[in-house]
Model the fold of this input.
Amino acid sequence: MNANRFAIRSVIAGAICGAVICCVSTNSYAEDSKPGDKVEKEGNKMKARPCVVVWSEGTAPMNVYPADINGAIAEGLTQSLQDWEVVVANLKDADHGLPDALLNRCDVLVWWGHKKHGAVNDELVGRIVKRVREEGMGFIALHSAHFAKPNLALMGTACSWREYKSDTKSIHLKVEAPGHPIAKGIKDCDFENGERYEDPYAMPKPDDVVFSGVFTWKNGQTSSSKQGFTFTVGKGKCFYFQPGHETNPIYMNETVRRIMANAVKWVVGTK
Ligand code: ZN
Done:
């Protein structure tokens, strides 16, 4: 029995009230669940739904992300993927929030990490890679998760950008592949973005570059770089999205939330 299952509104309300409950163990975000609901209440309904797990290392500032980055992403996914089970998992949870029982039924794993890549258990990384490569689990790496162990293992390259700068104020996101399902309903747009990663990126050849972007620096200069691209790794589909620095609340942005939902639906594999 998992007493830590909350509706997203409860997590956010608790965080706003100052209670540090965004770091409890794995939470399942069900539209109709309430604090204290028992797993048995939904029973088979939960098992029948596709499952997306949103993982975070827990280092995002609370004043920007009161429910952490995975909580913000999960909130957006819950709103748009109403027939999905949306779960948050955290580095500090037991098994890093990804015990076998959850990982084995996870259809899509979304990963945000920055400062604590080295703390991630190598055995877990191996299980994630196996789920993607051999069993078709989708994998989405966000922003500084380019250096996350699962992303490195799946890509098999250095996954380094040419340059990292925190001298930026915004990005103009450009849709490069308007026919791609991840770009469905997305138009070119601008949002706050304080950190830029510059091409080239040491990666395998992507299947599709869905988004690029033009950064506007604080001094008025501009530069451009790839922002979102897809890969196939064995049986699994992968997507990387560059925006997502922890001091910019872009995962509350409606366009970014739509991109996240589109990406989850696109990378989902068949069990
Ligand atoms: Zn960053």
About this structure: Residues 1-46 have pLDDT under 50 and may be disordered. The first helix runs from residue 8 to 16. The chain has one domain: 8-160+227-267. The first strand starts at residue 27 and ends at 29.
